[in-house]
Specification:
8-stranded parallel β-barrel; single chain; alpha/beta; 3-stranded mixed β-sheet
Length: 475
Amino acid sequence: MQKDFLWGGAIAAHQVEGAYDEAGKGLSIADVMTKGDVDTPREITDGVLPTKYYPNHQAIDFYHHYQEDVDLFAEMNFKCLRISIAWSRIFPNGDETEPNEAGLEFYDQLFAYMKERQIEPVVTLSHFEMPYYLVEHYGGWRNRRMIEFFTRFAKVVIERYQNLVKYWLTFNEINNQSLTENPIFAFTNSGLIFKDGDKRDQLMYQAAHYEFVAAAKVVQFAHQLNSNLMVGCMVAASPYYPNTCNPEDILKAQAMNRGQYFFSDVQAWGYYPKYILKHWEKSGIKLDITDDDLKTIAAETVDYIGFSYYLTSTVSSDPKLEKIGSGNAAGTDTVLNPYLKKSAWGWTIDPLGLRYYLNEMTDRYHLPLFIVENGYGAKDHISADGKIHDDDRINYLKEHIIQMKKAIEEDGAEVLGYTVWGCIDLVSFTTGEMKKRYGMIYVDVDDNGKGSFKRSKKDSFDWYQKVIATNGEEL
């Protein structure tokens, strides 16, 4: 492993910060999502209702605990910490012309403290927390004006923190919204609320197009402002395998992978590939795309590909096989993979899939890659000795790191870093639960927001501390 490899962890503002209405912060889309569970989807409400519980309002109160938490990350030897800047802290409604200084000051303090503890920030600009006002008054990213609002926000924070933050990401898991059968993804990605009669795919592609234009404008601004800055896209990596060597299975998997790769293709290549143009033509999808938009997308492409990796899915063209969902990668014709085990939340565990994806992305883009999320959600139990022995999490992370190292050292992938998702327990995005824990640091708070909020180390804390200290040699 290279000496400057960025080992660390990853969190998102809406899942950790809390303080949802402090210091001038406006409502975000995460603030109107209730708690769900593995069987009950989170509800998106029309504003905040007094009869509902919203776990992101309090989360783990990182807003008031950030120094304690950053100290723990430093003790774990973190080289970097991926976070997001809550858009609605900086522009409470999203369409203002002047930012909220109190919101900026919070991140001034956070980044300064991270620098003091020698932890490099990796910052996501839009991580499922756009201002809810923009949904109510503009329809989210179905509206072209979102380009203006987002780029204004991005320019303010990039200019302010350019000397503290080198690595930036634009839209978190931008490809998740392609799963239009589940409305939570279009809402959290783009603030889209589907109405009766809406052509969901057309709306999704339109939102994505506006996001591509906005992202390209941000890349251009960052490069002109400071040549040291690197801006990447961010996608959810959930590769699809063919169930058999039947050519129909192979083609189905290829088509579904293209549907996922499309979002990084445009941002890395700077143009719309022919396969998507043919798909739009065949499906009757007509979008608002101008010549200036295409010039903007072509002018500036990303410096690296950031991605999350948790699972793979298997697809079949055989109508007789039982079709199943597979966590956040559920899609048409997904079937059981008998070679893989699953987590308690039904997500396949596939370390070799990470190596496969790294190689696919290397061959496709010839760009640096950054694993900005990889983690294991599980119910943790405090043992009689008062400790949390999370061997399953250690084994999961160990096996994925082994495959990452093989992709780098044997296959030639260029990987900037590896950040464990939810390095501290946080509110689950998909279910809104606390009991689905990812952290190497335990936070004493339950699904109803009750607890002492005390932080304590799990066994994985000491294990990861050694991994980083040895630059991945001791696993």
